Amino acid sequence: MDAKRLTSRPSVGTNGESKTAVNKQVNHVTSSKRFQASYEGPPPPEIDEEEFDEDVFLEEILGEEPVTDTGVQGIQSRLAQWRRPAPPQYHNAYDNIVFQQLEIDYIIDESSKELLPENKGPAAVLRIFGVTEEGNSVCCHVHGFQPYFYIAALDTMGIDDIPKLRQTLENRMRESGKNSRASVCVTDIKMVQKRSIMYYQKQKTRNFYQIFVALPTMVATCRGILEKGIHIDGIGSRCFLTYESNVLFALRFMIDCGIVGGNWIELPARKWHDRMDMRRLSYCQIEVDTLYSNLISHPAVGRYSKMAPFRILSFDIECAGRKGHFPEPQHDPVIQIANLLTVQGESKPMVRNVMTLKTCAPIVGADVMSFESERDVLLAWRDLVREVDPDVIIGYNICKFDLPYLIERAQALKLSEFPILGRIQRSRVRIRDATFSSRQYGQRDSKEVTIEGRVQFDVLQAVQRDYKLSSYSLNSVSAHFLGEQKEDVHHSIISDLQNGNPETRRRLAVYCLKDAYLPQRLLDKLMYVYNYVEMARVTGVPISFLLARGQSIKVLSQLLRKARQRNLLVPNMKGQLGQETFEGATVLEAKAGFYEKPIATLDFASLYPSIMMAYNLCYCTLVRPDDMKDLQLDPDIYNKTPSGEMFVKQAQEKGILPEILEELLAARKIAKEDLKKATDPLEKAVLDGRQLALKVSANSVYGFTGATIGQLPCLEISSSVTSYGREMIEHTKKLVQERFNISNGYQYEAEVVYGDTDSVMVQFGAPTVEESMNLGREAADYISKTFTKPIKLEFEKVYYPYLLISKKRYAGLLWTKPEKHDKMDTKGIETVRRDNCLLVKNLVTECLNKILIDRDIPGAVQFVKSTIADLLMNRVDLSLLVITKGLTKIEGDYAVKAAHVELAERMRKRDSATAPGVGDRVPYVIIKAAKGAKAYERSEDPIYVLENNIPIDPHYYLENQISKPILRIFEPILKNASRELLHGAHTRSVSISTPSNSGLMKFAKKRLSCFGCKATLSEGDQTLCSHCRGREAELYQRTVSNVRELEQLFNRLWTQCQRCQGSLHLDVLCTSRDCPIFYRRKKAQKDLSEAEVQLERWEF
Amino acid sequence: MKRRERSESQSSAARRDWREIALLKFSAHFLSQRRSKLKHDAKELCVVKMLELRLVQGSLLKKVLDAIKDLVTDANFDCSESGFSLQAMDSSHVALVALLLRSDGFEHYRCDRNLSMGMNLTNMAKLLKCAGNDDIITIKADDGGDSVTFIFESPNQDKISDFEMKLMDIDSEHLGIPETEYHAIVKMPSQEFARICRDLSTIGDTVVISVTKEGVKFSTTGDIGSANIVCRQNKSVDNKDNETAIEMNEPVSLTFALRYLNSFTKATTLSNTVILSMSKELPIVVEYKIAEIGHIRFYLAPKIEDEDETQS
């Protein structure tokens, strides 16, 4: 294909061409690229993150023929009213264009003739998408920025060797044959004076070659060639270490131009060129070309710290699945799409719209568009996206489900004109499978859908990243954060609703709208927009990286920026797997017990960052033992760390990492001070988000140096940090015990009861909180003085009383002021762990409340006993017994059989549609089974258990769930805790229920037993044995009142569910697995029907 | 399902009215009964109700417990005038145990009223371990008490020990399998059956038991191979116990989980012969007669292909 012709706008294609366009598009959509070798072959190595540039050629993504607009008739005017405000006329001569950028990508295009007349051939053109203050969308094409990297020149090589090097590289690149499009691969080589960031060197700079290549992907090819070794005439065969060759092109551009994610960019007058109508490529209102050197990037301060009024589209789709199958795009139609458009900064959505297949009754406050064919629904949605032009697309699980589904569905319907959702005209959405794996976040599969110019923000992914929850369904997430349940319509019911009448479809539409509204509310509630933009600004990466990539890119971005300022280069040294590990943080031995005197806690404030700052630990201050002789260093200009590494002091050379940390912590301090002053809740949220982002970033620096498989590991730094940390804890302990004792004139003997990574718990012996606080403050000040700045020991809180169970496990009432305790604080106790059932959590919390707050130990014991009795009598709600575990890998990857994995497999056999997939959390309960059956054989789906009346195994819960945490709590308090709590009289009442689905139940006959004494009844007796007949009245009353109680309970639960679904006249459809009410309702219903059967036996 | 749920909730109000009426009706009925009742009570008032069973062959009870304690953990023992019995499903609800010790098999049997005693079989077995093999065992319980007493007397009466065990309150349904005519009944030496089950379980998890006129065939297949064992009908003249006899109306072939059959054979010590009764699509009955006094029956549902995950 002739590249030249394509950049100038292609003429309208002939018929023949239009056919190829269709074929081509199909290829695009299906071209899925395996990101990492995760599906086939051996399991993926634990790569923290691996990024590749991918060159996308403009001509490849454009259909040749402008798509004949077969949009839907009759909705254009309705859509048009939601357009962006018309842009003011910008004049090249005197108008500056200022906008907030949200997304930066690049495309391979022909070099611009006007801006760079001397360049030829394809080049990478960066595109910045953003919004102006007035709310107009901007697409800015940035020309002239070339991809490059560095290599260190050999001492023998000089400026004269450049042509030879260039020629050799060029030839090798041609041989590799991947880059046939470009006429020249290596466009330029420059000699520069720089220094490597690694190790302390006296020499300030040395020679480096800066190698420019034509296209971003060539960086990797070129790096490969140089690392493997290259033969240069006159110099011989050499391998070269490359520098900064693993930086993504867009990030490279941002670093060099000083752009950080989500900041404001100004295009000064006369430095930009408006794209004329003919040459416009995007749907943006303002589309301009400029040179990269003309951009002005504004740091996020003052008026540039605010947000542009960008548009956020939240959407949700509903599909009509077939019975027993999860909807598949090849077969099942999309029946509804709900949309919610919000302008950033406004509290109410601007558009609430739902598109339905077939008629739908009107909904108050929402715009309903009904269509007769599915094609129209899809195309109308495409038109909506194009017309309202959102900058950010959000939703719940859109990346894994909604977006791929829409695209694959359009493909199944042969709607080639559908997937033009991006901001580039005629450019189709690309989709590929991606596996994201990171140590911190675990592995998850996802589909990567590229919508050019629009940021996708999947609220599910964000919540999964930032919060540890037991379930990530939209329902439970919104219950958790918004305090609101939502009905959960099982997908098999959706088809029935769709096939009903306009009213049932309206019902579905309301549900669909709610699903679109909740992500928006979560976004607002969790301040995601602010937090993520702040995080992008602090770390300097694009917003889209924050969700799609892990931690280390953020540190790397900061490191590169700082290194650039200091004229340093970051080598591309990938860490090797299986490198040696180092000793971690220290934990002082815990003196377990129940402390009824106040315990003061002394904390190190940001311990690891402070250590790095105090001792100037950095890549560029590290002195290798080998270099020691050559450098001839004075002993007093370097520090030897407790782990034996050497780092020069600040006076010699200030480390980059300490500098980054100082900035981060200083910024955090400012943010925290502002936060104290701030009154406006919105402003508070922004500042809180910022200080949190800063804290997380500061702490991740240490992790970056210790990640052996990360971008630039340096174990010398991380092991030094931990060794200092250990030393400090021990030091603190020693000082406290030496000073605060009776022989030094204090009233009491201080005792360190426990110490963790960055805190020490001291019992000063004083009986009141106030005295302990004073002593704590005194100790903190006293000990802080002995440390190098900025390491500081702070006194923050007192625990009173304090229950220390073992290391990393304790609970106590937390006091920060002497008058009243603030809250109960627990660590490592089952109140917070997720792989326990709710019963344990409730039980532990209640016990701790009784022990710590009420100081009522007998009450706590009684509570445990009654809970255990309830459990054995099968009176506990099933929802309290549900255990959830994340399914992180596919079944074969698990070395041992695990309950949730086996269950997922069994559920898949039963009904593949509802079965959980990789990344989901699997809820299960443990049921009774044959003796000796393993736990993994006894796991069962809670809903299946409810429906089939399968008895749960109370002993499993007693022994494997309750006993350990309860005994841990009570052992320091109670003698013989196990006997008292787990084997008392309360365990001798049990209930054994009979399942309805067991093989034998088909044949067995139930025999009646007496209501009074449970003895089997002789023939003819219906209710009571002859012995109990005297108590007939009492027992009948008991049965009646039992039924009545259950009826009331059931009615209350039923109306609760009706309220939740927002209608008291309709059936409850909800089958939400996360809703405690659902389980209770089901159980109440079952109990009631059983009780009614019992009642009927009386036959009155 | 959903609709039912709803209708139930709405009709419950109506049902409540109905119940109110029923309550009134009942009061009338109750008053009329009361008089006769009082008379009846007065007659019995002076007698303390109790349970007392004396079993000379104490070892039988020990063996019974050994046979069932692995299948059932907690169960109610039902005592009535006719005998001492137990019906319980195993914890996975696939097999059912029915035990009957008839009252006439006891040396002394007193049961004033029907009584249900919940016991933890593991603990009960532990207590019975303390009884000597020749000991006479007496089981005693007071009406309304929360414990049961076991008294072990050595044969020559020189040692008497009593053990008290706390009872449990077990809320479960009474289940029983109705007696039916079976298509095929196989009587064979219990040792032989135990051995077959044990041998086959080394190969596979399930066994197909096919009964034909010639004999009974046990076959299994597993990962390592397959096995078939055929037992022919034989009439042993000198020893009735070694006889394999088949009574059959029509041939039957059923599949069972070996795991359960192996548990059933724990009862082998109770009897020299075992009786297997089978019908198409009905549970198998594995019955061991307990000398003169009763029986222990195990019921196991047949495996149906591609189903019954609970069994596997």
TrEMBL record, chain A:
Residues 1010-1081 form the C4-type zinc-finger of DNA polymerase delta domain. The keyword Ligase does not apply. Residues 1-47 are annotated as: Disordered. It holds the Pfam family DNA_pol_B_exo1. Residues 8-35 have a biased composition (Polar residues). Keywords: 4Fe-4S, DNA replication, DNA-binding, DNA-directed DNA polymerase, Exonuclease, Hydrolase, Iron, Iron-sulfur, Metal-binding, Nuclease, Nucleotidyltransferase, Nucleus, Transferase, Zinc, Zinc-finger. It comes from the Eukaryota. Residues 144-219 form the DNA polymerase delta/zeta catalytic subunit N-terminal domain. Belongs to the DNA polymerase type-B family. Heterodimer with subunits of 125 kDa and 50 kDa. The 125 kDa subunit contains the polymerase active site and most likely the active site for the 3'-5' exonuclease activity. This is DNA polymerase. The lineage of its organism: Eukaryota, Viridiplantae, Streptophyta, Embryophyta, Marchantiophyta.
TrEMBL record, chain B:
The keyword Nucleotidyltransferase does not apply. One of its GO terms (biological process) is DNA replication. GO terms for molecular function: DNA binding. It holds the Pfam family PCNA_C. The keyword GTP-binding does not apply. Residues 176-303 form the Proliferating cell nuclear antigen PCNA C-terminal domain. Keywords: DNA replication, DNA-binding, Nucleus. This protein is an auxiliary protein of DNA polymerase delta and is involved in the control of eukaryotic DNA replication by increasing the polymerase's processivity during elongation of the leading strand. Belongs to the PCNA family. This is DNA sliding clamp PCNA. It comes from Riccia fluitans.
